[in-house]
User: What shape does this take?
Amino acid sequence: MVTTQRRGGWVVVGAVFAMLTVAAGLGFYNMTVYLRALVDERGFSVGQVSGATGGFFLVSGIAGIPVASLIARHDVRLTIAAGALLGGGSLALLGRVSQLWQLYALYAVFALGFAAAGLVPATTVVTRWFADRRAVALSIASTGLSVGGILVTPLSARLIDRHGLDAVAPWLGLVFAVGILAIAPFVRPWPRTLADEPHASAGMEGAWFRDAVRSRFFVGVTVAYVLLMLAQVGGISHLFNLVSERVDEDKAATAVSVLAFASVVGRLAGGAVVTVISTRRFTTALAVVQGAALVVLSQGESAVALLLGTLLFGLTVGNLLLLQSILLAEAFGVLDYPRIYSVSQLVATIGITAGPAVVGIIHDSAGGYTAGLTVLAVASVGGAAALVAGGPVSATRS
Assistant: This one.
């Protein structure tokens, strides 16, 4: 029989799932929709908006450090609520942007809100609530990222296409703020002791931050995720515009839905797979597959080819975001997890920031996406090599 304590853990998973659905649907996945709207309605170039998109991911990565500190000292729900207000308020103003500096400034504030209601608090709470079923719990909770891309992003894309960014942005901001504020009370902080909650992770076992960051494994994973996120976020942020240019906007909206749907399937399957095979080997294989998917997208001209490439890409997207947290939790435990994960994520932000900008700059100079997506494919394979160089998880355990 499921105990009250065990139900408490799964309630947290459900709340995190819903929170990430809103945050990712209007933030992570929707950045490609905003790019297209800002280019069409404001006259910015792809490269200019790509730079702002890169800035969004850079600020959100940097913000992960203070967010990790806040949630270690205060109720995580307060941080999430603040993120809802910051993110919703800035998103509501997006339709009023008329100059490039305004876009950069607004994206920076949006990034702060996204970080406070995003992966650092989400993965920290779930990681500390679960021990033996951590991979499954994380896979279910983080599937909210993809569901946001399936349900929220295509709807907002169609609304923006029909009514324009000016009219739709305030409503998107309202949904972001109210949706996350309504969910935040259910993201219960992890219990401090085993007596408080038997279902929670039964200890704060693991490595200290200073020891973890000096390890070969941490360096390998972090370098790998610089390259993998450069490839992944660079591809995601330009997917809508890529398909719009080569086919049309209806197929572009379909591609975003396919990407998100495939990421759901990939993530749920991946959560089960890593219970029976090495997480590092699985991540390495996915990195190679991601590179292959980007090659397909770089060469595809028809709707069928682009959607097939998107499907393959989505299967890797769903897992790679999840696997960074699992790799680090397996290697270093939960003792200092928020700091370890947030620093690794911050360094990976170099790639997240560079990805959209690199592809945008190459697009503007080359007059298309082929060369830029090829660069992303090479980066993804480089990420696989870094994971191999980092060695096995067992090497970090005493």
